[in-house]
Amino acid sequence: MIGNFPYVTVAVSIGCGLYILMFQKNLIKLAIGINLIESGINLFLITLGYRKGGVAPIYTQAPAGKAMVLPTPQALTLTSIVIGVATSALVLSMAMMIYKHYGTIEVDKARRLRG
Amino acid sequence: MKEMSKIVKNITKLVYGFIIIFGFYVIVHGHLTPGGGFQGGAVVASAFALLLISYGQLEAKKLLKVDIFSLLESCGLTAFIVIAFLGLGTTFFYNFLANSGGWFGNAVTPGINPGDMNTAGVLPLMNMAVGLEVFAGLGIIVLLMAEGAEYTNKEGEHRNDR
Amino acid sequence: MKKIVFGIAFILFFSFMLVSAINMRPFGEPTFSEMDDYFIKNAQSEVGANNVVTSIVFDYRGFDTLGEATVLFTTISGIIALFRRVNK
């Protein structure tokens, strides 16, 4: 009996990500916040498709007589994970280039023109 | 990025091939077991990352070339689109090989079965194409970020500004 | 001043999310599942794959995968352009 605990986990994870995005100025911390929000959304999609006592929707030597969980949210989560990896790689590369260009990765100090 | 100690290098030499073979196993069996193109590609790219951090950037760049990875990635995406276009007799993305009796064309017995490699139509081909694209792409990301970390952390030297 | 406004907005949003998370439908009982039941029942005869998730990713919803592969390709092109050295 875990009740609605997965939904609460999703809300806390997205809340932590939003807090970081609102109140922090470091670019690496902002990337961490974006990743937290993204993993919260992935967990939410997976949670919506769970069926009580279900097994993974794969017929190769599956245990007999059990229900299968919904496969569509899992497929869309797979798509979402790969896009998240791509965007976080781009964000971190841009942070590296900003550090090289300005010498800092604080957002409000990296505004002045240089060179 | 410097090279690590002798223990890490020898273990890497021992384990490197097995990680790549496991990744290709996950890619090829994508229509039977958990996994598929994306997951297997990520496993293969993790082997490249292990080689990079244990041998250092200069040694690893003799083995892993960005140009070859770029070519492989373009080939993967092109193969995916070409396979999707091959079913254009009916619709885009039509599975024209499934249940046809030819390549990957056996019909499966409904219900729980031990699994047959020769089924599922164009799905194994698409898995291979996407796996090629994903491992080449993640390898490019790992290589370029290591190289960028080499020349972006020099304090006081801003010659390369744009 | 800005921090106070941000804090009030964050607390409001977070409490909304918590309340709606507690009032969600019970965990483990999907409300609408006709499409997924169709996929689970017919994927073996229509596509011929044992893995239903792969048959959805590459066959029923192939356009999603095409767009996703394009996003990955575009991102890697962007990273190559970002780390390109000019005066080499």
In short:
The complex is a heterotrimer of chains A (115), B (162) and C (88). Chain A has 115 residues and is mainly alpha-helical. Helix content of chain A is 63%, strand content 0%.
What brief labels describe this structure?
A: 115 residues, Helix Hairpins, B: 162 residues, mainly alpha, 4 helices, elongated
Sequence-ordered SSE layout with sheet pairings:
The complex is a heterotrimer of chains A (115), B (162) and C (88).
Chain A: H1 5-23, H2 27-48, H3 71-102
Chain B: H1 6-28, H2 37-63, H3 66-86, H4 123-152
Helix pairs in contact in B: 1-2, 2-4, 3-4
Chain C: H1 2-22, H2 34-46, H3 52-60, H4 62-82
State the helix count of chain B: 4
Largest sheet of chain C: none
Low-confidence stretches of chain C: none
- Largest sheet features of chain B: none
Structural class call of chain B reads mainly alpha
Count of the separate structural domains of chain B = 1
Strand content of chain C: under 5%
Give the total of beta strands of chain C. 0
Q: Strand pairing plus helix content of chain C: what structural class? A: mainly alpha
- The N- to C-terminal Cα distance of chain B equals 24 Å
Average pLDDT confidence of chain C is 85
Oligomer kind:
heterotrimer
Radius of gyration of chain B: 20 Å
Shape of chain B from CA axes?
Answer: elongated
How does the overall form of chain C come out from the CA principal axes?
flat
Q: Could you give the order of the helices and strands of chain C?
A: HHHH
Helix content of chain C: over 70%
Rg for CA atoms of chain C: 23 Å
Helix count of chain C, per DSSP? 4
Mean pLDDT of chain B: 82
What is the CA–CA distance across the termini of chain C?
49 Å
